[in-house]
Amino acid sequence: MSPVVGIVALLVLTVRLAAVVAVGVGALSLETGAPTAAFELTVDGETAAVTVEHLGGDSIDVTELSVIVAVDDEELTNQPPVPFVGSSGFDGAPTGPFNAATDSEWRAGERATVVVADTNEPTIDTGDAVTVTLVVDDARVAVLEETAN
Question: What's the pLDDT tens digit per position in 122-142?
């Protein structure tokens, strides 16, 4: 009788363990991670142009993107509401995928530029340390730092 009880207990334990593993694997496959991509930042201190180039990796849906620009560790009063065509704190329309009139997918090889207006604080001058943080769905994708030329 005890060998039968032992076999039944092992079967019950195996089924429960398999159920726990199946639930864990299912939960992992449902999680979506932030996109993975490489970027390069260029800042022109004379024109206050901030350019970000997508070097490679996953495409980024700019409708889900937040861009945070800081000058010498102080965030701009008006952040670029990408995608946009005209916005307070910026001169003209942005170029590339930051422009609302273009495709919303930001792919490798594409550049996006915004020009910070003199009315936005702090202003960008040659020699300033500029940081651009890219966030998709509350997940930080990149933090880029460059000294304005």
Answer: 999 999 999 999 999 889 999
Per the CB < 8 A criterion, the answer to whether 71 and 79 are in contact is no
22-44 pLDDT tens trace:
666 555 544 457 789 999 999 99
The number of domains in the chain is 1
Q: Is residue 20 part of a domain?
A: no
- How far apart are alpha carbons 144 and 62 in whole angstroms? 17
Give the Cα separation of 51 and 43 in Å (integer).
6
Residues 6+ positions from 12 with CB-CB distance below 8 Å = none
User: What is the CATH classification number for the domain harbouring 63?
Assistant: 2.60.40
Q: Which two tokens stand for residue 139?
A: 């997940």
Q: Cα torsion at 66, 59, 146, 129 (round to 10°)?
A: 0
Rounded distance, CA 39 to CA 77, Å?
Answer: 24
Which of 108, 107, 66, 58 lies closest to 84, judged by CA? Answer: 66
Collapsing DSSP to helix, strand or coil, 45 comes out as: coil
Output the pTM of the full model: 0.77
